[in-house]
Request: fold
Amino acid sequence: MTTRTQTPGSKRKPYVREMPASWWQRSLFYRFYMLREGTSVPAVWFSILLLAGIFALRNGPESWSGFVHFLQNPVVMLINLIALLAALLHTKTWFELAPKASIVIVKGKKMGPEPVITGFWCVTAVVTLVILAIALFL
Reply:
């Protein structure tokens, strides 16, 4: 709660609009906004997990084996699935935002967002498949 202080030289109290903690629950737009911002928590989890994997790999076969065993825990698998879904949601909203950041004009007409969004998803799919192929076959 904010305190109300008087302005120097004035006896009036400044107007402070009250903002309840549940302000974001009133609108579907703001609820989705909070959900999207909340995707940062699983991203932090994945970043820490990735760093732990790098250190485990650096520390030798026993450490790596322990890390893989940790990843096979059902709770960790569930958290990783949630992190994947959060990353996909974040990616979807980011791809939908990208065409709004710049106006592309083709033959004198403004291009719609669909080709840009589709292109981003195609690039994502190709890069994912290439990384998967490298991981599985090398």
